[in-house]
Amino acid sequence: VIWLQGAGCDGCAVSALNSIHYAAIDDLLVNTLDVRFQSNLMAAAGDLAVSAAQAAAAEPGYILIVEGAIPTGAAGKYCRLWTGTSMHAALLQLSADAAFIVALGSCAAFGGVSAGAPNPTEAKGVGQLLGNDARLVNVPGCPAHPDWLVGTLSYVLAYGRLPPLDVHRRPLQFFGERIHENCFKRRTYCGELIVAKQLS
Question: pTM to 2 decimals?
Fold first, then answer.
């Protein structure tokens, strides 16, 4: 796994550390995932961290996780991953050889808060830059729930393909229905609305 962090708050990375349903994060990191680059979790820093990302990128077939929006304005100068490499350039370069691309969190998936008006950095979501890429799965949320990330990665590792997706490229397992559809008050509340409309 190569995990890039763009314009965001690192909330999705912190959320992932709370994983317990599928597996605890220590078990995932030690026994399941080979996370080669993730700036919050790795001990390496500086040139050593950069070389770890570049070494991982030299082996095609990795999972690329993108957290945070991608600023594209001013030739990407608003967000640099390391010297001479903008987040925008890194996304384009590293997505080329990735087997799967996970846009983690609302910022990476759809631009989120980082792309809010007036959006001076011209921040965008991964899909806006890569198009309808068959390797892309959006796992939005602010932050994304750890089960949504781990469940998606578990499916990819188990079956070698993305899980079933909705029209927004989100996993149906987690985004297949609205919370309101499972609300125990829904029948009563909706019935009251219908009666109120008929009386007015």
Answer: 0.88
